[in-house]
Specification:
Blueprint (H helix, E strand, L loop, with lengths): L14 E5 L2 E4 L2 E8 L4 E4 L11 H9 L2 E6 L8 E9 L15 E7 L3 H4 L6 E13 L1 H4 L7 E16 L2 H18 L10 H7 L3 E16 L6 H12 L4 H11 L3
Helix pairs in contact: 6-7
């Protein structure tokens, strides 16, 4: 088993109107700027919702690895989107670039998924990782006028796909994914006695690499609010007894 290879805003931000590429908020506009001549479409992130420390993006991706992968289809099919597990290639030992360019990722999906048939080597894709998020009621602010909003964290990763055709390399991706998830979320399960079973199901698995070209992180955590108001939001989230709210509160507490 161990010898198998692993293949190389404004104040509130409440949405009141939207279209596929443009969201207008109270005093804040969030949109994706698309450069059609280059085929690039990037999420716009207001400066106060960016975090200069790249570890915020890396940690969000590692702790929330079920990504939504989107890619263009034909004019008849429209775009494809699939939820799937994505990990960093465990062989990669470099320090991440500020925009994660060059980071190698590994993913896999069911070969019966039509998305797999539409996914060729060289396909440009978008991976969306969603982190902690929670609704903020104006009642928490303790001031008026006020409006509700939703605090959220997300990383959009742009990259280029390389399909993996080798059965052994596909098995390597599956095993690397299991190791990563058992370490992060599991109980250290030993897969050695299940490798033969893995081999039986691997022919139905489509594995791929992604070479990251750019990533943006959006950490909307009430930065536009006064510190005392933000602290009220943190206390409200922490008191909910909900993991998602607690995680959002923890990130807010890390803000300067």
């Amino acid at each position: 088993m161990e010898n198998l290879t692993v293949p190389p805003t404004g104040q509130y931000g409440g949405f009141v109107n939207h279209s596929p590429h443009h969201f207008r908020a109270s005093g804040l506009q969030i949109h994706w700027r698309c450069h059609t001549t280059k085929g690039e479409c990037y999420m716009f992130v207001p400066g106060h919702y960016r975090e200069s420390d790249v570890s915020w993006m890396v940690d969000l991706m590692r702790e929330n690895p079920l990504a939504l992968m989107a890619s263009n289809g034909s004019s008849a099919d429209g775009p494809f989107a699939t939820h799937l597990p994505v990990i960093t290639d465990p062989r990669w030992e470099e320090l991440p670039a500020p925009d994660l360019a060059g980071m190698p990722l590994l993913g896999h999906m069911n070969r019966a998924n039509p998305h797999w048939a539409a996914l060729d080597t060289g396909t440009v894709i978008l991976l969306t990782f969603t982190g902690p998020h929670a609704y903020v009621s104006p009642a928490v602010y303790g001031v008026t006028p006020a409006a509700p909003t939703w605090n959220f964290t997300s990383v959009h990763v742009h990259g280029v796909v390389e399909r993996i055709n080798s059965t052994e390399d596909t098995l390597g991706v599956v095993q690397a994914t299991v190791r990563a998830f058992e370490k992060e979320f599991g109980e250290g399960w030993d897969m050695s006695e299940s490798v033969d079973y893995f081999r039986k199901i691997v022919p139905g698995v489509g594995a791929f690499r992604v070479r990251v070209t750019k990533a943006e992180g959006m950490f909307k955590l009430s930065q536009e609010q006064r510190s005392e108001v933000r602290e009220r939001v943190v206390r409200s989230f922490a008191a909910r007894g909900c993991t998602r709210h607690a995680q959002t509160a923890d990130l807010m507490s890390r803000l300067p």
